[in-house]
UniProtKB/TrEMBL annotation:
SUPFAM superfamilies: Dimeric alpha+beta barrel
Protein's gene: rhaM
Name used for this protein in its record: L-rhamnose mutarotase
Domain of life: Bacteria
Keywords: Carbohydrate metabolism, Cytoplasm, Isomerase, Rhamnose metabolism
EC number: 5.1.3.32
One annotated GO molecular function: L-rhamnose mutarotase activity
Source organism per UniProt: Bacteroides intestinalis
Family matches, as Pfam families: rhaM
InterPro entries: Dimeric_a/b-barrel (IPR011008), L-rhamnose_mutarotase (IPR013448), Rham/fucose_mutarotase (IPR008000)
Gene Ontology biological-process entries: rhamnose catabolic process
Length: 104
């Protein structure tokens, strides 16, 4: 098992919509993540900066950010592109964070 964290960028005024879409996350996307070993996945919003901080545990080889070769992830990226800062392929701009402390 490994832990990964990263940050993404929410467009101003899109906080409620971001929460609404994640409250209705597609079952097939959740299944894909689970089947590929992503679990215990949380995203936090810093309202002062509009930065999203995500952390997840991974049993498999790839984090959620590395599954862009699948149609469902590409569809999710397209769905979220209007409310997040994205790359040309609509993947969220995602910056890995370095873990400096962990306590179990």
């Amino acid at each position: 098992m490994k832990r990964e964290a990263f940050k993404m960028f929410l467009k101003p005024g899109c906080e409620a919509e971001y929460e609404r879409r994640h409250a209705q996350i597609w079952p097939e996307l959740k299944q894909l993540l689970s089947e590929n070993g992503v679990y215990d996945y949380s995203i936090y919003w810093d309202k002062d900066t509009n930065i999203l901080y995500a952390c997840q545990k991974i049993k498999g080889e790839a984090s959620s950010q590395e599954m862009g070769n699948t149609p469902i992830v590409q569809k999710w990226w397209d769905y979220m592109a209007d409310i997040m800062e994205v790359n040309p392929d609509n993947s969220p701009i995602s910056i890995p964070l370095i873990e400096v402390f962990h306590m179990e």
